[in-house]
Amino acid sequence: MSTLRDQLAALPSFPHPLPVLDPEQAPEDPHELFSRWFQDAIDSGQRQPHAMTFTSIDGEAAVGRTLIVKDIDERGFHFSTHRTSRKGQQIEANPRASMIFFWRESGRQVRVTGVVHALSREESERDWQARPSYTGSPNPDWQLYALEPREFEFMQAREDRNHTRVEYIRHGPTWSHGTVDTPAG
Ligand SMILES: Cc1cc2nc3c(=O)[nH]c(=O)nc-3n(C[C@H](O)[C@H](O)[C@H](O)COP(=O)(O)O)c2cc1C
């Protein structure tokens, strides 16, 4: 009789073939690599390439949930939600947060860590009006935010499971980067 463990063990973790990330070729600016991977995910027709796991801090514990990224500009990675939601209250108390993107068809994951800023009321209202469920009433509780990145970790899965990871850390206006050598699964 097949156990759940056997079923899970038989599932492939990653597709074949996988793209390669050469750390020597990593650009100075992580936004460039992010844009390249994001555009690849969009162009190749991956489902919901703009969905990510957004993690905020509830007291001592990290709490994650799926959100949609709405835009990316010089202020950061935009997302929107209700200010009075749990995540809204958590951001209010502690603006540190992260986003994890997982593009399964290319075996790629990116973690973006930083600080959340609320964007303007006008932009929040525009975002609210663009929702399919908009009925014409304004919603002062709806808020557009930007996660201003301080760190990025790019992971490219490899078939030998020796996944390639490149980490970027911001120092004021510039970024440093290098490979991450701790075990990657
Ligand atoms: C694919 C997907 C996209 C979602 N996008 C959003 C979003 O953009 N904004 C949002 O507030 N909730 C979104 N949700 C719902 C959240 O995951 C979450 O359940 C909800 O916001 C309440 O979270 P909270 O109680 O931690 O604040 C999405 C859920 C899924 C599955």
Q: What features would you describe in this structure?
A:
The chain is of the alpha+beta class and 185 residues long. The protein has one domain (26-43, 51-179): Roll (Pnp Oxidase, Chain A), CATH 2.30.110.10. It contains four helices and nine strands. Strands 1, 2, 3, 4, 5, 6, 7, 8 and 9 form a nine-stranded antiparallel sheet that branches. A hairpin with a 4-residue loop joins β5 and β6. The chain is globular. The mean pLDDT is 96. The chain binds flavin mononucleotide. Flavin mononucleotide is lined by residues 48, 51, 65-68, 79-81, 85-87.
Present the secondary structure layout.
Elements: H1 4-10, H2 30-43, E1 51-58, E2 61-68, E3 71-73, E4 76-82, H3 86-93, E5 96-103, E6 108-118, H4 121-129, E7 142-156, E8 164-171, E9 174-179
Antiparallel strand pairs: 1-2, 1-5, 3-4, 4-7, 5-6, 6-7, 7-8, 8-9
Bound molecules: flavin mononucleotide (FMN).
Number of structural domains? 1
Content of β-strand: 35-45%
Q: Structural class from helices and strands?
A: alpha+beta
State the CATH architecture. Answer: Roll
Say what the CATH topology is: Pnp Oxidase, Chain A
What is the CATH domain class?
A: Mainly Beta
Q: What is the H level of CATH, i.e. the homologous superfamily?
A: Electron Transport, Fmn-binding Protein, Chain A
Low-confidence stretches: none
- Note the main sheet: 9 strands, antiparallel
Output mean pLDDT. 96
Q: Please write the string of helix (H) and strand (E) elements.
A: HHEEEEHEEHEEE
| Total count of strands | 9
- Small-molecule binders: flavin mononucleotide
Helical segment count: 4
